[in-house]
Specification:
- By secondary structure, the protein is of the alpha/beta class.
- The chain has 2 domains: 1-33, no CATH class; 34-252, 3-Layer(aba) Sandwich (Rossmann fold), CATH 3.40.50.
- It is built from 6 helices and 15 strands.
- The radius of gyration is 21 Å and the shape is globular.
- The two termini are 41 Å apart.
């Protein structure tokens, strides 16, 4: 029992009031006692500025934790016995070689419910595996390639450009609260984007394919692709950081 303002209130009631107060504070200020989202970052096949990239991931705070694994060793993380070690896959690789068995396990992992956020040069990966192109809904081709009845020419790229990123809809959870912004990054042009994806970001930069961000489903998993992300200026861009964080949170829901 506890006496409050001259009245005796059962301790059980006091605890219930405190619990409701804590929940209200969490809702009001966005705090959460939920377990952090564990992201597994897959790298390999392409160099990048590790320290600056990791600083971006660390900036997401305690709600998102990360582990980095490099291909080809990272293929083991797609095995059933390792899938409980992470919640979201973040692709930042440009790996090319994959065996039939590795492709089967990789596809099954994502199809069965491991969501993906794919960044930048990860759309250039697996030149000989169309199954990967189906998973992420896009592909930058390095050689003339016939795919889905169309002949695709090799893509092109330009480093170190200032260009504008346009948000298609601020109502989507990935782009919520983000307005059009400028980045200093690398553009890709001529890459395949799957029909039926939901465009999230576009650009009018002539050296780029117009759609530079999209979402889709693959099996039970949500997929988000962000074409930007080549170098440190993008890693430090507040709008890009917010996009990536919100993409990770959204695909995990």
């Amino acid at each position: 029992m506890r006496e409050v303002w001259g009245e005796v209130i059962p301790m059980k009631t006091v605890l219930s009031i405190l619990f409701l107060f804590v929940i209200s504070i969490e809702i009001l200020f966005g705090f959460s006692a939920a377990k952090p989202i564990r992201i597994l970052v897959i790298t390999g096949g392409h160099g990048y500025k590790v320290e600056q990239f990791n600083q971006m991931l660390s900036s997401f705070g305690p709600r998102i934790t990360y582990q980095v694994e490099q291909l080809p060793g990272a293929f083991s993380m797609f095995l059933p016995e390792n899938r409980d070690k992470y919640d979201v896959l973040v692709f930042y690789h440009m790996w090319q070689k994959i065996s039939d068995e590795q492709a089967r396990v990789f596809t099954e992992c994502i199809e069965s419910g491991k969501p993906v956020v794919a960044l930048h040069h990860s759309i250039c990966a697996f030149d000989s595996w169309p199954g990967y192109w189906d998973i992420i809904g896009g592909k930058y081709f390095h050689a003339v390639t016939t795919y889905r009845g169309k002949e695709w020419q090799p893509g092109s790229y330009i480093h170190d450009l200032h260009f504008n990123v346009k948000v298609v809809s601020s109502r989507h959870p990935v782009t919520k609260g983000i307005t059009d912004f400028e980045v200093f990054d690398e553009t890709y042009k001529g890459y395949y984007v799957e029909e039926g994806v939901t465009p999230l970001l576009t650009t009018d930069e002539p050296s780029s394919t117009p759609v530079i961000g999209w979402s889709k489903k693959f099996g039970k998993s949500k997929i988000v692709v962000l074409q930007s992300g080549h170098d440190a200026p993008t890693f430090e861009n507040p709008s890009f950081r917010k996009l990536l964080k919100q993409a990770i949170i959204w695909v995990n829901k």
